[in-house]
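Predict the holo structure. Ligand: phosphoric acid mono(formamide)ester.
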Amino acid sequence: MAKHLLSLWNFDRPALQAYIDLALRLKKESKAGVRHQLLAGRVVGLIFEKPSTRTRVSFEAAMYGLGGQVIYLSGRDTQLARNEPLKDMARVMDRYVDGLVVRTYGQEVVEELGRYSQVPVINALTDLHHPCQILSDVLTVIEKRGEIANQKIAWVGDGNNMANSWIQAAGRFGFHLTLACPPGYEPNAQILAEARQNGTGTIELTSDPVAAVKNADVINCDVWASMGQESEQEARLQIFQAYQVNDALLAQAKPGAIVLHCLPAHRGEEITDEVLEGPQCVAFDQAENKLHIHKAILASHLG
Ligand code: CP
Ligand code: NVA
Protein backbone atom coordinates (compact mmCIF):
# COMPACT_ATOMS: atom_id res chain seq x y z
CA MET A 1 0.00 0.00 0.00
CA ALA A 2 1.16 3.52 -0.75
CA LYS A 3 2.63 5.25 2.29
CA HIS A 4 0.71 8.50 1.79
CA LEU A 5 -2.96 9.05 0.93
CA LEU A 6 -2.78 11.98 -1.47
CA SER A 7 -5.34 10.91 -4.09
CA LEU A 8 -7.46 7.79 -4.62
CA TRP A 9 -5.65 7.05 -7.87
CA ASN A 10 -2.56 5.85 -5.96
CA PHE A 11 -4.53 2.82 -4.73
CA ASP A 12 -5.98 -0.18 -6.51
CA ARG A 13 -9.48 -1.40 -5.90
CA PRO A 14 -8.57 -4.02 -3.23
CA ALA A 15 -6.66 -1.39 -1.25
CA LEU A 16 -9.61 1.03 -1.40
CA GLN A 17 -12.01 -1.77 -0.50
CA ALA A 18 -9.79 -2.60 2.49
CA TYR A 19 -10.40 0.88 3.97
CA ILE A 20 -14.16 0.34 3.55
CA ASP A 21 -14.08 -3.13 5.11
CA LEU A 22 -11.99 -1.95 8.07
CA ALA A 23 -14.29 1.06 8.59
CA LEU A 24 -17.34 -1.21 8.62
CA ARG A 25 -15.69 -3.47 11.20
CA LEU A 26 -14.54 -0.62 13.45
CA LYS A 27 -17.97 1.02 13.21
CA LYS A 28 -19.74 -2.18 14.23
CA GLU A 29 -17.32 -2.88 17.06
CA SER A 30 -17.36 0.64 18.45
CA LYS A 31 -21.17 0.68 18.41
CA ALA A 32 -21.00 -2.59 20.38
CA GLY A 33 -18.91 -0.85 23.01
CA VAL A 34 -15.42 -2.00 21.99
CA ARG A 35 -12.74 0.54 22.96
CA HIS A 36 -9.99 0.24 20.38
CA GLN A 37 -6.33 0.77 21.20
CA LEU A 38 -4.92 0.25 17.69
CA LEU A 39 -2.98 3.54 17.81
CA ALA A 40 -2.14 3.72 21.51
CA GLY A 41 0.99 5.83 21.99
CA ARG A 42 0.76 7.31 18.49
CA VAL A 43 0.44 11.02 17.71
CA VAL A 44 -0.93 12.57 14.54
CA GLY A 45 -0.40 16.19 13.51
CA LEU A 46 -3.26 18.02 11.79
CA ILE A 47 -2.18 21.01 9.68
CA PHE A 48 -5.24 22.87 8.38
CA GLU A 49 -4.89 25.95 6.18
CA LYS A 50 -8.64 26.09 5.47
CA PRO A 51 -11.63 25.91 7.83
CA SER A 52 -13.20 22.57 8.71
CA THR A 53 -15.87 21.24 11.03
CA ARG A 54 -16.39 17.60 10.03
CA THR A 55 -12.95 16.61 8.76
CA ARG A 56 -11.03 18.10 11.66
CA VAL A 57 -13.31 16.84 14.41
CA SER A 58 -13.79 13.37 12.89
CA PHE A 59 -10.03 12.90 12.41
CA GLU A 60 -9.42 14.04 15.99
CA ALA A 61 -12.20 11.85 17.38
CA ALA A 62 -11.00 8.93 15.23
CA MET A 63 -7.46 9.24 16.60
CA TYR A 64 -8.66 9.44 20.23
CA GLY A 65 -11.08 6.59 19.52
CA LEU A 66 -8.13 4.40 18.53
CA GLY A 67 -6.18 5.32 21.67
CA GLY A 68 -3.95 7.90 19.99
CA GLN A 69 -3.41 11.63 20.42
CA VAL A 70 -3.64 14.69 18.19
CA ILE A 71 -1.83 18.00 17.73
CA TYR A 72 -3.84 20.54 15.71
CA LEU A 73 -2.15 23.43 13.94
CA SER A 74 -3.98 26.00 11.89
CA GLY A 75 -1.97 27.35 8.95
CA ARG A 76 -1.30 30.66 10.66
CA ASP A 77 0.11 28.95 13.77
CA THR A 78 3.07 27.50 11.92
CA GLN A 79 6.12 28.99 10.26
CA LEU A 80 4.51 28.03 6.92
CA ALA A 81 2.66 31.33 7.30
CA ARG A 82 6.09 32.99 7.22
CA ASN A 83 7.23 30.96 4.22
CA GLU A 84 9.25 28.22 5.85
CA PRO A 85 9.87 25.72 3.03
CA LEU A 86 7.55 22.72 3.01
CA LYS A 87 10.49 20.35 2.74
CA ASP A 88 11.87 21.70 6.02
CA MET A 89 8.48 21.51 7.72
CA ALA A 90 8.09 17.88 6.61
CA ARG A 91 11.55 16.87 7.86
CA VAL A 92 10.91 18.45 11.27
CA MET A 93 7.34 17.33 11.86
CA ASP A 94 8.13 13.72 10.98
CA ARG A 95 10.48 13.58 13.99
CA TYR A 96 7.65 14.58 16.34
CA VAL A 97 4.55 12.81 15.05
CA ASP A 98 3.59 9.49 13.46
CA GLY A 99 1.51 10.98 10.65
CA LEU A 100 0.30 14.26 9.16
CA VAL A 101 -3.25 15.07 8.10
CA VAL A 102 -3.19 18.15 5.88
CA ARG A 103 -5.89 20.47 4.50
CA THR A 104 -4.54 23.09 2.15
CA TYR A 105 -4.92 24.81 -1.25
CA GLY A 106 -2.53 23.32 -3.79
CA GLN A 107 -2.26 19.59 -4.34
CA GLU A 108 1.47 20.27 -4.82
CA VAL A 109 1.68 21.17 -1.10
CA VAL A 110 0.65 17.68 0.05
CA GLU A 111 2.80 16.13 -2.71
CA GLU A 112 5.85 18.10 -1.53
CA LEU A 113 5.21 17.21 2.13
CA GLY A 114 4.87 13.58 1.06
CA ARG A 115 8.15 13.69 -0.85
CA TYR A 116 10.09 14.74 2.24
CA SER A 117 8.15 13.26 5.16
CA GLN A 118 9.21 9.93 6.63
CA VAL A 119 5.73 9.55 8.12
CA PRO A 120 2.44 9.17 6.21
CA VAL A 121 0.76 12.29 4.83
CA ILE A 122 -3.04 12.16 4.50
CA ASN A 123 -4.84 14.61 2.20
CA ALA A 124 -7.75 16.13 4.14
CA LEU A 125 -8.77 18.30 1.13
CA THR A 126 -6.93 20.33 -1.47
CA ASP A 127 -8.28 22.41 -4.34
CA LEU A 128 -7.85 19.30 -6.53
CA HIS A 129 -8.98 16.36 -4.37
CA HIS A 130 -10.93 15.31 -1.28
CA PRO A 131 -10.07 11.59 -1.17
CA CYS A 132 -11.01 10.83 2.45
CA GLN A 133 -14.45 12.36 1.91
CA ILE A 134 -15.12 10.22 -1.15
CA LEU A 135 -14.12 7.08 0.79
CA SER A 136 -16.76 7.86 3.40
CA ASP A 137 -19.24 8.60 0.59
CA VAL A 138 -18.51 5.23 -1.02
CA LEU A 139 -18.93 3.57 2.39
CA THR A 140 -22.31 5.30 2.70
CA VAL A 141 -23.44 4.14 -0.74
CA ILE A 142 -22.42 0.56 0.08
CA GLU A 143 -24.36 0.68 3.36
CA LYS A 144 -27.46 2.19 1.81
CA ARG A 145 -27.52 0.39 -1.56
CA GLY A 146 -25.69 -2.85 -0.73
CA GLU A 147 -22.87 -2.36 -3.26
CA ILE A 148 -21.16 0.26 -5.40
CA ALA A 149 -19.99 -1.34 -8.67
CA ASN A 150 -23.39 -1.46 -10.39
CA GLN A 151 -24.63 1.89 -9.15
CA LYS A 152 -25.45 4.76 -11.45
CA ILE A 153 -24.12 7.82 -9.69
CA ALA A 154 -24.77 11.42 -10.74
CA TRP A 155 -22.72 14.45 -9.83
CA VAL A 156 -24.59 17.75 -10.26
CA GLY A 157 -22.82 21.10 -10.06
CA ASP A 158 -19.23 22.26 -9.97
CA GLY A 159 -16.41 20.13 -11.39
CA ASN A 160 -14.46 20.71 -8.18
CA ASN A 161 -12.18 18.77 -5.82
CA MET A 162 -15.05 16.45 -4.84
CA ALA A 163 -15.94 15.79 -8.49
CA ASN A 164 -12.30 14.97 -9.31
CA SER A 165 -12.08 12.45 -6.49
CA TRP A 166 -15.44 10.91 -7.49
CA ILE A 167 -14.02 10.42 -11.00
CA GLN A 168 -11.06 8.54 -9.55
CA ALA A 169 -13.43 6.46 -7.40
CA ALA A 170 -15.47 5.53 -10.50
CA GLY A 171 -12.28 4.47 -12.27
CA ARG A 172 -11.23 2.27 -9.37
CA PHE A 173 -14.55 0.86 -8.08
CA GLY A 174 -15.99 0.48 -11.58
CA PHE A 175 -19.35 2.22 -11.20
CA HIS A 176 -21.13 4.45 -13.68
CA LEU A 177 -20.66 8.18 -13.05
CA THR A 178 -22.31 11.01 -14.94
CA LEU A 179 -21.27 14.54 -14.13
CA ALA A 180 -23.43 17.52 -15.05
CA CYS A 181 -21.44 20.75 -14.88
CA PRO A 182 -21.99 24.17 -16.46
CA PRO A 183 -19.71 24.86 -19.45
CA GLY A 184 -16.41 26.18 -18.15
CA TYR A 185 -16.84 24.45 -14.77
CA GLU A 186 -15.96 20.91 -15.81
CA PRO A 187 -13.71 18.68 -13.68
CA ASN A 188 -9.96 18.44 -14.26
CA ALA A 189 -9.47 17.19 -17.84
CA GLN A 190 -6.32 15.20 -17.08
CA ILE A 191 -7.90 13.36 -14.15
CA LEU A 192 -10.94 12.57 -16.30
CA ALA A 193 -8.86 11.31 -19.23
CA GLU A 194 -6.69 9.15 -16.99
CA ALA A 195 -9.68 7.56 -15.23
CA ARG A 196 -11.45 6.90 -18.55
CA GLN A 197 -8.35 5.40 -20.13
CA ASN A 198 -7.01 3.32 -17.26
CA GLY A 199 -9.99 2.85 -14.98
CA THR A 200 -12.78 0.28 -14.94
CA GLY A 201 -15.85 2.53 -14.58
CA THR A 202 -17.73 4.50 -17.21
CA ILE A 203 -17.65 8.25 -16.83
CA GLU A 204 -19.84 10.65 -18.78
CA LEU A 205 -19.77 14.42 -18.80
CA THR A 206 -22.74 16.60 -19.76
CA SER A 207 -24.03 20.08 -19.09
CA ASP A 208 -27.60 18.76 -18.64
CA PRO A 209 -28.50 18.00 -14.99
CA VAL A 210 -31.74 16.22 -15.97
CA ALA A 211 -29.89 13.86 -18.32
CA ALA A 212 -27.32 13.16 -15.59
CA VAL A 213 -29.83 12.16 -12.91
CA LYS A 214 -32.11 10.09 -15.22
CA ASN A 215 -32.39 6.68 -13.56
CA ALA A 216 -29.61 7.48 -11.10
CA ASP A 217 -29.31 5.48 -7.87
CA VAL A 218 -27.30 8.22 -6.18
CA ILE A 219 -27.30 12.00 -6.64
CA ASN A 220 -24.38 13.93 -5.34
CA CYS A 221 -23.93 17.66 -4.89
CA ASP A 222 -21.68 20.19 -3.22
CA VAL A 223 -21.38 23.96 -2.81
CA TRP A 224 -21.15 26.06 -5.95
CA ALA A 225 -18.21 28.10 -4.64
CA SER A 226 -15.56 26.15 -2.78
CA MET A 227 -13.21 27.45 -0.12
CA GLY A 228 -10.88 29.96 -1.76
CA GLN A 229 -13.51 30.95 -4.39
CA GLU A 230 -15.44 33.36 -2.18
CA SER A 231 -14.95 36.25 -4.64
CA GLU A 232 -16.75 34.21 -7.34
CA GLN A 233 -19.75 33.44 -5.12
CA GLU A 234 -22.11 36.01 -6.68
CA ALA A 235 -21.29 35.12 -10.29
CA ARG A 236 -21.55 31.38 -9.57
CA LEU A 237 -25.00 31.85 -8.02
CA GLN A 238 -26.25 32.90 -11.46
CA ILE A 239 -24.25 30.39 -13.51
CA PHE A 240 -25.30 27.35 -11.44
CA GLN A 241 -29.04 28.16 -11.07
CA ALA A 242 -30.12 25.20 -13.25
CA TYR A 243 -27.98 22.81 -11.20
CA GLN A 244 -29.96 22.92 -7.97
CA VAL A 245 -30.90 19.54 -6.50
CA ASN A 246 -34.60 20.06 -5.79
CA ASP A 247 -37.73 17.89 -5.78
CA ALA A 248 -38.22 18.26 -9.55
CA LEU A 249 -34.69 17.05 -10.30
CA LEU A 250 -34.90 14.27 -7.72
CA ALA A 251 -38.10 13.03 -9.40
CA GLN A 252 -36.02 12.21 -12.51
CA ALA A 253 -33.85 9.73 -10.59
CA LYS A 254 -34.78 6.16 -9.72
CA PRO A 255 -37.51 5.92 -7.08
CA GLY A 256 -35.74 5.57 -3.76
CA ALA A 257 -32.50 7.10 -5.05
CA ILE A 258 -30.34 8.56 -2.31
CA VAL A 259 -28.92 12.08 -2.17
CA LEU A 260 -25.42 12.71 -0.88
CA HIS A 261 -23.99 16.04 0.22
CA CYS A 262 -20.58 16.23 1.89
CA LEU A 263 -21.71 19.36 3.83
CA PRO A 264 -21.56 22.21 4.65
CA ALA A 265 -24.69 22.85 2.55
CA HIS A 266 -26.07 26.15 1.30
CA ARG A 267 -29.82 25.56 1.42
CA GLY A 268 -31.61 27.26 -1.45
CA GLU A 269 -28.47 27.17 -3.60
CA GLU A 270 -27.08 23.75 -4.64
CA ILE A 271 -29.79 21.91 -2.66
CA THR A 272 -33.21 22.83 -1.34
CA ASP A 273 -34.14 22.56 2.31
CA GLU A 274 -36.86 20.04 1.30
CA VAL A 275 -34.36 17.67 -0.31
CA LEU A 276 -31.70 18.07 2.38
CA GLU A 277 -34.24 17.38 5.15
CA GLY A 278 -36.17 14.82 3.08
CA PRO A 279 -36.19 11.03 3.45
CA GLN A 280 -33.91 10.36 0.47
CA CYS A 281 -31.03 12.49 1.73
CA VAL A 282 -28.39 10.63 3.74
CA ALA A 283 -26.02 13.55 4.37
CA PHE A 284 -25.91 13.09 8.13
CA ASP A 285 -25.17 9.36 8.00
CA GLN A 286 -22.57 10.28 5.40
CA ALA A 287 -21.07 12.80 7.84
CA GLU A 288 -20.98 10.16 10.60
CA ASN A 289 -19.11 7.81 8.28
CA LYS A 290 -16.23 10.27 8.12
CA LEU A 291 -15.43 9.21 11.69
CA HIS A 292 -15.37 5.52 10.83
CA ILE A 293 -13.46 5.86 7.57
CA HIS A 294 -10.91 8.16 9.22
CA LYS A 295 -10.32 5.50 11.86
CA ALA A 296 -9.70 3.00 9.06
CA ILE A 297 -7.35 5.38 7.24
CA LEU A 298 -5.36 6.21 10.37
CA ALA A 299 -5.15 2.56 11.45
CA SER A 300 -4.04 1.49 7.95
CA HIS A 301 -1.35 4.14 7.53
CA LEU A 302 -0.12 4.60 11.11
CA GLY A 303 -0.81 1.19 12.60
N1 CP B 1 -17.22 17.60 4.29
C1 CP B 1 -16.19 18.27 4.84
O1 CP B 1 -15.04 18.09 4.47
O2 CP B 1 -16.57 19.16 5.80
P1 CP B 1 -15.61 20.17 6.60
O3 CP B 1 -15.19 21.24 5.62
O4 CP B 1 -16.47 20.70 7.71
O5 CP B 1 -14.44 19.40 7.09
N1 NVA C 1 -15.78 21.67 -2.53
C1 NVA C 1 -15.86 22.10 -1.16
C2 NVA C 1 -15.86 20.92 -0.24
C3 NVA C 1 -16.02 21.27 1.21
C4 NVA C 1 -16.00 20.07 2.11
C5 NVA C 1 -14.70 23.01 -0.84
O1 NVA C 1 -13.57 22.73 -1.27
O2 NVA C 1 -14.91 24.03 -0.18
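The two ends are 13 Å apart (CA to CA). Residues 283-302 form the longest helix (20 residues).
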